[in-house]
Design goal:
CATH architecture of the largest domain: Up-down Bundle
CATH superfamily of the largest domain: ABC transporter type 1, transmembrane domain
Shape: elongated
Number of domains: 2
Strand content: 5-15%
Distance between the termini: 66 Å
Helix content: 55-70%
Structural class: alpha/beta
CATH topology of the largest domain: ABC transporter transmembrane region fold
């Protein structure tokens, strides 16, 4: 339960509900035993087997507690029987009903308060995971499947929530029910009670053998669920490719293999889980059988026990079976919950290498320059950037060009501090990037990527991400500057129009212009354009390029481009190859050298 213990801290804000739950569980356990004992006077009346005691008994020593209870009950029944047997029966039945009513009322109240605890913990864990997901570095998500993370936030957290009820039952309710019932049984017959005491540890031993591998099986089930959720996510997002390349059968085969593994793991897990209840019930009914044989002799042969009292004892013994089964189920549930908790803790305790340093400063203005000094960056032992040096003055536009894989986008990601450099440094003015708080850094930077990242929201809300406090007037101005206003007002609901998942209701050019409008509304000092026009047709490219020129005015800009026609006005063009700078200069300067840049321009003219 090491991982599950770490989850328990989320229950601290709800400790008042836990205390109330424990209190009402204690009351439930107490009245569970009392409600069974209440059958003794009822059976005494029905079988008329009570001793007639007309003098009220007095309690003197602890050793006579059982005798005192029996005498007191006999006295009460004797008094009532002398009045009216029918009335006595009504009183006794009413007593039984009231006790069972209170027992079930306390049961409901215990469940009522634990509901707030369970759902509160569920809410807080999900919020914590989501907060962690937002703050983890981009590199974390290149190694984790989206479906696996979704499974941890959904099904794993639900498994932990269910386990919370189990642990309360395991620690408080069911053990106390057994304890109070055993106390009642001892007052009736200590000899018969020893049989029941022997049953509990024996049953627990066999149940622990069954559940030995449960945690491992549960972990396999959760991992496989995350895997096939990832396949579903990839299938939905890649419908066009899957269909045009005829890859449907391949994906179906992969999905079926995953669900088959999930089927096998789930069957093994459920077989182990389902074995707990019948096993404990079998051990229990075995004990009941022995009790019937041994207790029957005490009633019929040596008459040391009354028949009515023996029937109540059997009821109490059977009353132990229910909490015993619940404990066995709780043990299984907690084992499953611990496996789910381990997967949750892996996310919550994932190390964030990009955390702000204790001495990090707030910086909201670029005063003079951005400088890359001898940058080196590797990913999984592969060197991507090596010996990169570049200075970008405030207000300058610098373009990075080169073949795919030359490291252009990596430079942009390092500038935005999605990753940290392996060696060397990036500085804003005289402040190293690692010594600037990420929150203030990201306020200075605006990004427009090749793949327009939009959300299943209205146009207005997508643009408003640039400035959540922006007025409608500013949103319209940003859309006009991005050449997006005209197509927006033609839509059915205008700025309130929903654009669908990833903006799929819009064309590529329209999506890109919304991304630019969002960046314009943010009004960043530093602009990163990562191949913002590479996927557009000629007409859309002209509109987007015009919008980009509007947004770049007076800003420091880093442009990554394949289409060289879009970066000819850049102050400096940097040509990259295998993570290094091989040429640098203006468009005309590089053409005159007739080297790498010249060759790239010639290739695009063909």
């Amino acid at each position: 339960m090491n991982y599950f213990n770490k989850i328990l801290k989320y229950a601290i804000p709800y400790k008042s509900y836990a205390i109330l739950n424990i209190f009402f569980n204690i009351m439930y356990a107490l009245f569970s035993a009392l409600s069974m004992i209440a059958f003794i006077p009822l059976l005494e009346v029905l079988f008329k087997s009570n001793r007639k005691i007309k003098i009220k008994p007095q309690y003197d020593e602890i050793n006579s507690f059982r005798s005192y209870i029996e005498d007191w009950l006999s006295y009460q029944v004797t008094i009532q029987l002398e009045k009216d047997i029918s009335t006595t029966l009504i009183y006794v039945v009413t007593l039984v009903i009231v006790l069972f009513l209170l027992k079930n009322l306390f049961n409901y109240l215990a469940l009522f308060f634990i509901t707030y605890l369970r759902n509160g913990v569920l809410k807080d864990i999900r919020n914590s995971i989501y907060n962690k997901v937002i703050n983890l570095p981009v590199a974390f998500f290149t190694e984790k499947r989206k479906g696996d993370i979704m499974a941890r936030i959904s099904s794993d957290v639900l498994e932990v929530q269910v386990s919370f009820l189990s642990i309360i039952e395991l620690l408080i309710r069911e053990p106390l029910t057994i304890v109070f019932t055993l106390i009642a049984m001892f007052t009736i017959s200590y000899k018969l009670t020893f049989f029941v005491i022997i049953f509990i540890p024996v049953s627990g031993f066999f149940i622990s053998l069954i559940g030995k591998k449960l945690r491992k099986d549960s972990d396999l089930v959760q991992k496989e669920q995350g895997y096939f959720l990832s396949i579903i996510d990839e299938t939905i997002n890649g419908q066009k490719i899957i269909k045009t390349f005829g890859a449907g059968n391949s994906f179906l085969k992969k999905f079926k293999e995953s669900t088959k593994r999930f089927f096998d793991h789930s069957n093994r897990l459920l077989h182990r889980t389902n074995l707990a209840a019948p096993s404990s019930e079998f051990f229990g009914i075995t004990v009941i059988g022995v009790l019937l044989w041994y207790g029957g002799q005490m009633v019929l042969i040596d008459t040391s026990l009354k028949g009515s009292t023996f029937l109540v004892f059997i009821g109490l013994a059977y009353n132990i079976l229910t909490p015993a089964k619940a404990i066995s189920k709780s043990i299984f549930s907690i084992k499953k919950g611990d496996a789910a908790a381990a997967r949750i803790i892996e996310i919550l305790e994932a190390k964030n290498s990009l955390k702000d340093k204790p001495d990090a400063i707030e910086k909201f203005n670029l005063k003079s320059k951005i400088e890359f000094k001898n940058i080196k960056f590797s990913y999984q032992s592969t060197t991507i950037i090596n010996g990169f040096n570049l200075k970008i003055k405030k207000g300058e536009t610098v373009a990075l060009v080169g073949q795919s894989g030359s490291g252009k986008t990596t430079i942009a990601n390092l500038l935005a501090r999605f990753y940290d450099v392996e060696s060397g440094s990036i500085s804003f003015d005289d402040n190293e990037l690692t010594k600037i708080k990420k929150s203030s850094l990201h306020k200075m930077i605006g990004i427009v990527t090749q793949d327009s990242i939009l959300f299943n929201e209205s146009i207005k809300n997508n643009i408003k991400l640039g400035d959540p406090n922006a007025s409608d007037k500013k949103i319209v101005e940003a859309a006009k500057a991005a050449n997006a206003h005209d197509f927006i007002i033609k839509m059915k609901d205008g700025y309130e129009s929903n654009i669908g998942e990833s903006g799929n209701k819009l064309s590529g050019g329209q999506k890109q212009r919304l991304s630019i409008a969002r960046a314009i509304l943010k009004n960043p000092q530093i602009l990163i354009l990562d191949e913002a026009t590479s996927s557009l047709d000629t007409e859309s490219e002209k509109l987007v390029q015009s919008a980009l020129e509007n947004i770049m005015k007076g800003r420091t800009a880093l442009i990554i481009a394949h289409r060289l026609s879009t970066i000819q006005k850049a102050k400096t063009i940097v040509v990259m190859h295998n993570g290094k700078i091989i040429e640098k200069g203006s468009h005309n300067e590089l053409l005159s050298k007739k080297k790498a840049y010249f060759n790239l321009v010639q290739l695009q003219k063909i």
